[in-house]
Design a protein that fits this description.
The structure is a homodimer of 513-residue chains.
Chain A: H1 2-18, H2 21-25, E1 31-32, H3 43-60, E2 62-64, H4 68-76, E3 80-82, E4 85-87, H5 92-100, E5 104-107, E6 116-119, E7 122-125, E8 133-136, E9 140-143, H6 146-158, H7 177-191, E10 196-197, H8 203-217, H9 221-224, E11 228-234, E12 239-240, H10 242-253, E13 257-266, H11 274-295, E14 301-304, E15 306-310, E16 317-318, H12 322-338, E17 342-343, H13 356-372, E18 376-377, E19 383-384, E20 389-391, H14 392-409, H15 416-419, H16 421-427, H17 437-442, H18 458-463, H19 469-483, H20 491-507
Parallel strand pairs in A: 2-12, 7-18, 8-20, 10-11, 11-13, 13-14, 13-15, 14-17
Antiparallel strand pairs in A: 1-7, 2-4, 3-4, 5-6, 8-9, 15-16, 19-20
Chain lengths: 513, 513
Amino acid sequence: MAAQRRRSKKTSGRRTRLKDPFDSAHPIPYITRRVPVYELASEELLEIIENNAETVLEDIGIEFRDDEQALELFRSSGCRVEGNSVKFPRGMCREIIQNNAPSEFTQHARNPKRSVKIGGDSTVLVPAYGSPFVRDLDNGRRYATLEDFENFTKLTWMSPFLHHSGGTLCEPVDIPVNKRHLDMIYSHIRWSDKPFMGSVTAPERAQDTVNMAKIVFGESFLDDNCVITSLINANSPMTFDATMLAAARVYAENNQANVISPFILAGAMSPVTVVGTCTQLFAEALAGMTFVQLTKPGAPVIFGTFSSSISMQSGAPTFGSPEPSMVLYIAAALARRLGVPFRSGGGLCASKVADAQAAYESSNTLQTAMLAGVHFMLHTSGWLEGGLTMSYEKFILDTDQAGMIQVFLSGVDSSINGQAMSAIQEVGPGNHFLGCQHTQTNFESAFYRSAVADNTSFEQWRDDGEKDAEMRANKIWKDMLNTYEPPSIEPGVNEELLAYVKSKKDSLPDLNY
Amino acid sequence: MAAQRRRSKKTSGRRTRLKDPFDSAHPIPYITRRVPVYELASEELLEIIENNAETVLEDIGIEFRDDEQALELFRSSGCRVEGNSVKFPRGMCREIIQNNAPSEFTQHARNPKRSVKIGGDSTVLVPAYGSPFVRDLDNGRRYATLEDFENFTKLTWMSPFLHHSGGTLCEPVDIPVNKRHLDMIYSHIRWSDKPFMGSVTAPERAQDTVNMAKIVFGESFLDDNCVITSLINANSPMTFDATMLAAARVYAENNQANVISPFILAGAMSPVTVVGTCTQLFAEALAGMTFVQLTKPGAPVIFGTFSSSISMQSGAPTFGSPEPSMVLYIAAALARRLGVPFRSGGGLCASKVADAQAAYESSNTLQTAMLAGVHFMLHTSGWLEGGLTMSYEKFILDTDQAGMIQVFLSGVDSSINGQAMSAIQEVGPGNHFLGCQHTQTNFESAFYRSAVADNTSFEQWRDDGEKDAEMRANKIWKDMLNTYEPPSIEPGVNEELLAYVKSKKDSLPDLNY
């Protein structure tokens, strides 16, 4: 016993010397899936969808609007191009993608310990993206600012269950539209050392993202390595616009990753059926990924979907309902068969506050994304109101769910210790397991420990002020921001980044488009 | 067009004449699963658990406390019995169950249209069970009364997504313990016509349940048909008590169904690991189901689990976390391999109110139960606070989730209409689907319509009073109770039931045990 104690003391001393406490709290950079995916659709159904998608590509075609360069590229590759419409020979997109796009790739972080693998058996959890508003319990709903953006960068960095810094965590509405990407990229790089997403609102902003990444990673590193992942939405149905294409081109030419994401509210932007929606979004994704592979063969690309449905009474978007879950399961299977990484899911909801509706809807989508085999789970944390609002409290609540997803996907321990026959033998009928040797040994790692859930008695909860989950989350994010300390950065790199941002901003007028 | 309008008018006229509007709102009595289950564990792991469970049965044994009749039954069947401990020869339980227990059976309702199939490809959703408290937004948390019990019977009956009236919807604490089962059974029979669960707190109360069922269904109907399903909890670890055994015996001897349910908070009542917990609960379930099959070969039996975990800091029960989901998936697979129906799941949570915590936890468990292939989903609706409280608002919110489960399990429509190629063709790139022919045709059935979710704009929601999900649910259950009309019952049967209840009550002193 004494010897054992000495040894463990020594070990813990060594640990203190060698390990950064932040690193200990972030033991893994991303999830390695050790459980099967859920296969909703039969092989036959997947083949029907694949065939129908080829028919859409061949007979109906996809519009690539006002981008002569794209249209010429398709024409010279054997497509029928008329006006903006591109019709693809049957099987062409699949062949080009399968011959060129990587089935998995690494997105490097400026801290190599936080680089993530995208594709294969990996799952990367990413915060929500794109909301113009933020909400917290103290100040309610308001336009987002750069301070909010920086706060969410910091909260994401501190969370052990989010693996990626994300992109437009919220829109810093206090900064002109044509300049805010510079502040956002700087924030991701400076206040986090996890990987991040680039600007897509104009090709020159994509280029700024690439240029700033080159300051951090070095000019030539980007030639062979992915350090930026960016979100390219299709304008469903069956349309890509010039802005998105131009941004995607910049990233592809620089060998950086594009998530090609049909953005679909089924019933409005696709048919009212699951299979019809899957068919259309697959055709759109095939066309978009083909554009990337023709632009730069081998550039990393992710098949993305954002698919929900609408209320047939009001036309309003709805979330967490069964049909979008079906679409997600099927789209994930189509991505696997194609052999490219897949993006979907997240804590999607229509609710205006972090109430029961928000949680049911978010959990339904998170569970679906978890079991579908999503590789890049955008919108994991913070979403409210169909993405219009990023909520501080919901961010904390969703991130707790991200922790549970990490435990589940890490799989079942079937070792001798996991089988626990010694515990059942030791305790026997009618006794409890709290004090047995096996419980003592496994105490630390036994069960996922939620930071937000209140599991106390009713009386304790009442005496503590009857706080609901949203109120408890409010304290947590404030405590986190109060204890935030930035990751280190090389001073020269930081100065160069700041100089780049300043010179770019000085060179531009303030524009709000 | 005119001809079409005339025809549809005629059809709708015929419908009004032939169909009870209540029946139209309840088009199916239970869910027929048309999607695959999620298989978490490999064959190898399931075999390890089965083997280990046999070792528990053979070497450690199960205690059947203070029930000489049970002990003698096991002794004469070849078990080693010492004191209360029963040790089973390897493979004996499995063989007895597989040779005798039905893999699926029908539980008849007094209205044949509401009879349910339990097992196979069916899923039956059942409200929560057993809470001493109720809660609603107006009156907060308080002890439950018979009026509450009747209210939940009515709400369950009115819901198209709950297929079963359940059992102890809440404890009518205003009625003496030894009499309240009479009021509960009468309530299930009178205020609903869906199937129900029996009393298990004493063998004479089980017998009352059987006697009252015979008044409704006729003396001989019960000989060959199941009309009662009852919940028999094991006292984990590895113990059955005399009360539960005696109640189970009454039901088995009368050919009625028993749900044999190890009730486990892992870490306290089973090992802290998933595989250890599965091993123990499977051994307990095997022993309990063997007791039933030895008592009455062929009597319907359901393998039940109630498994959650505890907080290792406080010992408090926790819900909706990943480890219990793993246990649920594995237990369901063990039930399939054994060939018996499976009970688990529901909207389990530790929260004191119907907030985000309640919803995340409930949804995580509901989604797991949905995909695991649960046949009898007890606790689908209403649970709060680890089962201590039945909430009116949570009941409404969970039942909305039950509706989504029904849609999901009903499967993907892969018909020509489901494929919707005509819609994609008609609409084409850049347009919307709202007005196209296919959308018009499928408008009614297109997507699940939640009665609780608020999908309006922020401004609309704000102007409507910023109501959260719990507040909206409050209005719904009140509206339901206000419009409740009881199902018809034969006056003679009703009188006989009332007379039975009265004479039983008159013959008993008021006891609170």
